[in-house]
Amino acid sequence: MQHTEEHLEHTEPPVDIKRQIWRTFWILFALTIIDIAIYFYFIGHKSMTKNITFIFLGVVKAFFIVGVFMHMKFERKWLPYLIITPMLFVIYLITLMVIEGNYTSFVR
Fold first, then answer.
1. How far apart are CA 31 and CA 96, in angstroms?
2. Alpha-carbon distance 91 to 87, whole Å?
3. Fewer CB near the last or first residue (10 Å), C or N of the chain?
4. Which pLDDT tens digit goes with each residue over 84-106?
């Protein structure tokens, strides 16, 4: 069975890849500044909001890093889903651990 190029779902990287990389850099830079500002705002607090915020910002930054810098955005559609699906389970596990850790700190 022959595979032709028309059957393969492959997207080419854009011509202006440098511009897209710099745009992603500045988005990551802004998210990191927001992350640090939130950390210093909540520095003395032990709260679930702080944990959820850091996890969310980490996942958003990971999305940009994997998508642009690791060129996953330009691969076939099934490959990112193959990588993202187990990561969703890891995020779910981390969320459950944070909730359980927060609960056990209140029980004592």
1. 24
2. 6
3. N
4. 788 889 989 998 998 888 777 67
In contact, 38 and 50? CB cutoff 8 Å? yes
Local structure of residue 8 (DSSP, 8 states):
S
pLDDT in tens, 50-77: 878 888 888 888 888 877 777 676 677 7
Angle at 12 between CA 6 and CA 15, to 5 degrees: 140
Quick one: tokens of 39? 């950390």
Computed over every residue of the chain, the mean pLDDT equals 78
Residue 11 has pLDDT above 90, yes or no: no
In the numeric block, which tokens belong to residue 62? 């990971």
The residues near 105 (Cβ < 8 Å, ≥ 6 apart) are 46
Q: Where do the structural domains in the chain lie, given as residue ranges?
A: 1-74, 76-108
- DSSP tag of 68: I
Residue 29 has pLDDT above 90, yes or no: yes
Of residues 93, 97, 24, 35, the one with CA closest to residue 64: 24
